[in-house]
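Aim 2 progress. For PB1-like domain-containing protein, the working sequence is reproduced below.
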Amino acid sequence: MAFKVLLHHYGRFISPSGRKFVDGIVATVDPVELSNFSSNQMKAILTKCLGYDENSAAFLYMKKPNRSLDLGLVLLDDAIQDIDSIVTYTQTYQNLLHVYVSRGVIPTCCGDQLEDGGKRKKKTDKPSCSKKLFD
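Predicted structure tokens for this construct:
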């Protein structure tokens, strides 16, 4: 099964309630094969394609379909443990998976304020990555 990842990055989460991801950009990773999908591969894209420092802390979250960012964020590592959830989420989003990058810590219950520990880079043209990173 192949799907497309919309990688929301260089932005930051604002505090709940009504949490949003602001000042960010979206990188499209397409196609992604479910059998090769991992958080390590997403981190490789962040460093090799998008210019993130591999030593800086970055937390990856997946957004559940039809949920707000206040209630729908799940750690990507946790979601990958349950492959059926990835299949369900991508089918609900018409083969799209929304992944968010946080440079600070955001609790899975989404009840605390996010610490913005990362520096944003200047916005440039929309980045993209190729399947070669997954081979």
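The chain has three helices and eight strands. This observation will guide construct design in the next reporting period.
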